[in-house]
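ok trying again, last paste got cut off:
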Amino acid sequence: MKRFMVIGLGRFGQRLAQMLTQAGHEVIAVDLREELVERVRDEVALAVSLDATDPEPLKAQDVASLDAAIVSIGEDFEANALATATLKSLDVRYVVSRASSQIQRRILMRIGADRVIFPEEEIAERLASQLANPNIVEHLALAEGHDLIQIRAPAAWHDRTLGEIDLRRKYEVNLVAIKRTVKTRNEEGEEIKSEELVDLPMAHTIIRDGDVLVLVGSTASLSNLPS
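nice, full thing came through this time. structure:
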């Protein structure tokens, strides 16, 4: 289980907080507006009304131990930027900030944001899964509560067979295919890289470093895969 703080509980921030919670992670939802805090109080681990530009109330929430903080204050860029700078000054390891223009993006990166997003171009579900597991390279919602993801093979699975990993029993997910980079040489001896699709992986199939696994399962099960 990871620990996240979502600051700014507009439509995007609220959905992100819900998705991270549904994936089994601890979420602290923050906004100055009490009515928005009340809206998510029963859906997250903790909902707090506080000024995220003030370091003191943030310290009280032990922000230095967060896996990530997401600043999604859409209507007030100054507050968004100040909250970002404040979080970085408090040694938050990974801060994601919202922007609505390339100028805002440059400012946020300059003051320390580790990643800048444009909510109009981001799907909250995709961001939630990527934050929960940075090995995820693609995410597709299939139906309510069920997803298909492409994930870089975790280091703990390298050089092990699918039978040893036992994905279905241990993680309750199904492996659909494996994308694998294959190196060959042409007649001139030059190395050529191509992608191979293993579409019928068997129990004896060995997972290699660099493999991308195509997995299907419930949102909760997929979120619990090792990173």
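cool. The chain has two domains: 3-130, 135-223. The mean pLDDT is 90.
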